[in-house]
Amino acid sequence: MSENSNRPPCLDTLLAKIAHRSCTVGVVGMGRVGLPFAVEAAKAGFNVVGVDTDPERVASLKRGVSYVEDVPSGEIKALVLSGKLQVFGDIDDAPDFDVLTISIATKLDKSATPDLSSMISVAEEAKRKLRKCQLVSIESTVYPGATEEIFQTSFMSTGLTPDKDFFLAHSPERVDPGNRAYSEKTITRVVGGIGPNSVAVAKAFYEAVLDRVHVVSSTRVAELTKLYENTFRAVNIGLVNEMLRVCDHMGLDVWEILDAANTKPFGIMRFLPGPGVGGDCVTLDPHFLEWKAREYNFPTRFVGLATDINRSMPAYVIERLWRILNDRGLPVKASKVLVIGASYKRDVADLRESPAVRIMDMLTERGAVLAYHDPMVPSLKTAHLELKSVQLTPETLSHHDVVMILTDHSTVDYALIAEHSNLVFDTRDAMRQVANGHARVVLL
Predict the structure, then answer these.
(1) How deeply is 374 buried, as exposed, middle or buried, from its count of CB atoms within 10 A (0-12, 13-18, 19+)?
(2) pTM summary value
(3) Among candidate residues 310, 232, 240, the one with its CA nearest the CA of residue 277
């Protein structure tokens, strides 16, 4: 029997639609992952239908207004006006798709165990739209085996045959918010399928949208690739955060040591210490790996240690601040503290798992009088505080006992901070170019 005799007819049909950009692409989850991809797919010539349950997002996109820093509003407005991008609040209201990508956020429960309810729910929703000759690609971060165990199992209950009647793939997102060097289009996409036909369709689709595609042997490989990438970051951040604390005990400057170590042209990568980790990748992905590894009775010790160190950094920052203020005869309670940066990383407005927010809550609990400045986050509300970003002026700076730099946004005037602050506690080495060894600037 020839190889072509096992080739399902709908495979060539869908490949032809992809090649001619005549298929409709659905994107479920129009957040920091889904929105950039939806825009790139529309710019590549596909008709794109976005689905998101957040009515504010839907309304914003229909007006042509972006809520993601890396996606210009002008691009969205042009695509909406041309009809290349439509947005719906319910998948059942959306038109049929030829290709469906799923990029909803995955979560952990209070015990740091993966919460699969959102994945199971979206699988059931996608199943209602499933039909022959359709590709579904999971881009959300999941544990190894989830694409098959959750999505393939759900889809097979329709009576359709996987890799013959429908095609299923996993292609983990690699978006890095705020990164000007790499974009959704230029970052290589890893693609794995449940079978050779699914791989062929997924490869063709992603190559039609993005610059580079790397095919792996299975969806499980693709799923674990994403977890490894972010666990790698978490472990190395944990290592450099532990080195920071070792240097603190030894009375050494960790920043000088890192500068010296990074002059070596091989065998080292530049990771920097900080007040903790945030976002939904480095903070969550290692837990997916730990959880799945326990199923095989394998303890991931490096991962657990790094997670513990990184999660303890906000408390360590508070303890360092206490020492810094104590040396100057000031208590934490009633001290006026101005925080610079509330988001979890530079040049984004994302507060998810932000260590800066955790530190602000902890300071409030300890009686500090708190204010913050963040050019990306005009206001914030937590369980313990509700604040609006203040303007960064000489008067504001001099009014506070200490200025804490927790997120090093590139648009902040650090020279102004150096000139007018009474004391600066810099957890990000943001003052390097302007402090000139000033005694009022203390590094983490």
Answers:
(1) buried
(2) 0.90
(3) 310
292: number of Cβ within 10 Å: 20
φ/ψ region of 228 (left if φ > 0, alpha if ψ in -120 to 50, else beta) reads: alpha
Q: What angle do CA 303, 305, 310 make, to 5 degrees?
A: 95
What gap in Å lies between CA 382 and CA 377, rounded to an integer? 13
Question: Which residues are catalytically annotated?
Answer: 281
| Cβ neighbour number for residue 32 with a 10 Å cutoff | 23
Structure tokens at 311: 């999660």
Degrees to nearest 5, angle at CA 226 with 220 and 230: 145
Length of the chain: 444
Give the pair of three-digit tokens for residue 38.
């939806």
One-letter amino acid identity for 219? T
pLDDT tens per residue, range 62-86:
999 999 988 999 999 999 999 999 9
- Characterise 386 by phi-psi region: left (phi > 0), alpha (psi -120 to 50), beta (else): beta
Report d(CA 28, CA 129) in Å as an integer.
12
| Token pair belonging to 63 | 């007006």
Euclidean distance between CA atoms 178 and 346, whole angstroms: 7
The model's pLDDT over 28-44, given as tens digits with 9 standing for 90+, comes to 999 999 999 999 999 99
Domains identified in the chain and CATH numbers: 3-223 (3.40.50.720), 233-443 (3.40.50.720)
